[in-house]
Amino acid sequence: MTEKLATKRNPPKWSLWLRGLDEWLLIFQKVSGAILAIYLIGHTLVISTALGFGHPSQLTWERVIGLIEGPKVVGVAHVGTIIEYLIALLVAIHGANGIRLILMQYFGLGLPKPERHTYPMIPSPRKSPQLVYKYLVIAVVIVFIILASYVAFVG
Amino acid sequence: MSSVKAGLKIEVKRGTFTFRVKRYDPKTGDYRWSEYKVEVTNRQTVLDALLKIKSTQDATLAVRYSCRMGICGSCAMVINGVPRLACETKPFELGTDVITVEPLSNLKPIKDLVVDMDEFFEKHKSVKPWLIRRDEGEQFEKLDSYYVQTEEQLINYLEFAYCIKCGACYSACPMVFLNKNYLGPQALAAAYRWSADNRDEGYVLRLKVIDSDNGVWSCHYSGTCSKVCPKGVDPALAINLLKKSLLTGKPPAR
Fold first, then answer.
1. Which residues, at least 6 apart from A12, have a Cβ–Cβ distance to it below 8 Å?
2. What's the confidence (pLDDT) of residue B235?
3. What is the C-alpha separation between B93 and B79, in angstroms, rounded?
């Protein structure tokens, strides 16, 4: 049997990408972005249908929105409210982290200046300025969850 | 056991570790796991253990290494799930009795732990990682003057000049896994290293490669490259500084 050169790369170590905050923020950013893109298409279709595709009527609106809203499940919240609540959470995560990335990459927010090596070497994602902004993103999302939960299920 | 030298007491401990090695067989094109029990001291590295396995238990085990002291970058492999240099990783410091050793991810295997680095070096070469001057005559023929550089100008790129091209960052990058044509953290850090050098005038030539879908814009910033780098090079910082330069239209600080 002759030896043959491999055509496929070695498989990745998935566990390596589930360890750090940066990796989790990347996963949330990608997943929330994909779900929001799909939601945007669905939302456009539902609202267009409710508006009768250019021929709006009260009856069509109430029938379509009533169907999507569904029955009440918790407090004042309908099935539709819970879907909107979950989508709002994704918007909060995607938005807060997205703003952090834009500020960092455009304005250099939290990026250290290159410096001479000193041991132990700390990579920039683990240095304090960047950590502060990452924790700030998490804090913003937690505050948003509390406020959104109050509005959706109590108020 | 202990030894005393120049007033310094060095504790030497011994322990037996089980090495689970993921091996690629080029004849069948499949991977298989081999297990070896080896006694090592706390002064020895994973590379020492692999070489001991090769000389005493299994001569067919293929490992690539050269300098054995963290300079050449030949012995990078995935040890306990993280890409590291085998010559700088001590079994005693890993904290596990069973140590898994695998070839670098995101690269094609050749045999056992040896991977094909051609693709990695081609990408490195594509960013023109050398000193480029507008006037080649002045650079290569009139060798009567120096290119002046101050301490501050040196520090702008020195951090990124420590790269030994071991491929650990390339192996750890999730975006290299998702986009096979992505240049990867090492090549982009090299692009920044040369572009931030005040003696270099080739930033504009490198733009075509780095300002593209397979250049910096494929990086979605997980920072894993910087966390695994055995030499403390910070490719994630270099990529972010390149993105900042491209977005603001200002070349890297030099």
1. B105, B106, B174, B177
2. 97
3. 12
CATH superfamily of B117-248: Alpha-helical ferredoxin (1.10.1060.10)
Write out the two tokens for A99: 């703003």
Q: Does B14 touch chain A (CB under 8 A)?
A: no
The CATH fold assigned to B9-115 is Ubiquitin-like (UB roll) (3.10.20)
Q: Which of A77-86, A94-103, B207-216 has the lowest mean pLDDT?
A: A77-86
Domains detected in chain A: 21-112+123-153 (1.20.1300.10)
pLDDT digits (tens, 9 = 90+) for B208-235: 999 999 999 999 999 999 999 999 999 9
User: Does residue B74 belong to the interface with chain A, where contact is any CB pair within 8 Å?
Assistant: no
For chain A, positions 75-114, list CB contacts with chain B under 8 A: 101, 104-108, 111-114
Q: Any long-range contacts for A119-123 (C-beta under 8 Å, 24+ apart)? A: A119/B232, A121/B232, A123/B223, A123/B226, A123/B227, A123/B229, A123/B232, A123/B234, A123/B236, A123/B237
